[in-house]
Amino acid sequence: MARIGIFDSGVGGLTxxxxxxxxxxxxxxxxxxxxxxxxxxxxSAATVTQYxxxxxxxxxxxxIDLLVVxxxxxxxxxxxxxxxxxxxxxxxxxxxxxxxxxxxxxSGRIGVIGTxxxxxxxxxxxxxxxLRPDAVVVARACPLFVPLAEEGWTDPDDEVVRGVVRRxxxxxxxxxxxxxxxxxxxxxxxxxxxxxxxGTDVMLVDSAEETARTVTEILGSSNLLRxxxxxxxxxxxxxxxxxxxxxxxxxFLGGKLGDVHQVSLExx
Length: 268
Ligand code: DGL
Description:
The chain is α/β, with parallel strands linked by helices. It contains eleven helices and ten strands. It has helices spanning 14-23, 45-61, 72-85, 94-104, 116-121, 123-131, 145-151, 159-174, 191-198, 207-220, 243-253; strands at residues 3-8, 28-33, 66-69, 90-91, 109-114, 136-141, 179-183, 203-206, 234-238, 260-262. The protein starts with a strand and ends in a 6-residue tail after the last strand. The model has no long low-confidence stretch (mean pLDDT 95). The structure holds D-glutamic acid. The site of D-glutamic acid (DGL) has 16 residues, from helix 3.
């Protein structure tokens, strides 16, 4: 059976894991959350690349057949280095997200939100422009969305939440975008309030769902998968003590994580 490795800076990648398991319930997965080094979104490309390579080597040692880089920041800055270093296919979330956005837009005015690292890298902007050269891309970092999602502050009726979301999204509204890419692992948790603030004319693109679809395309036609009626093996690893990851993770995953083990990155 194919084993899918998936890593993120921490708990956020569980939104990608969730989408993956919804699409491929029989998949065997090994998830690594680098909780000792989170956040990645505020760090330099060089540091995130170094962390990402280490995470990938841990997963490689687990015998994975495919690596999914769930972290948007790592996908934005570390994909070429990961592809060069690993003997297995490496899939990031930026390309699938950009593809879905280009499919969804009719006006060509596309918004992208993500961490400072993701937006600063220009990766989504470049991927969108490569697919649709006449696209007008409006990109904006929304750093406070990550702690809001982790704290579970997602209630659209909460005036603090609404105020933060409105303030970040106002420039995107002013640009009359018709499609918005949720370019961060945490943003699907805030989808309800983001949709409400942006209004029904704006289509939200969830990179997690698109990535799951791409993995299904890669593996779905092979006979490397269990039938959907069988549940795959799921392993969860973190680089710091598991308690906080489990608490927030059950919510992000939308179910019980089960056992979560701490791993040391020493030697990788
Ligand atoms: N996982 C990160 C991302 O999708 C968000 C959290 C962080 O900054 O590490 O970009």
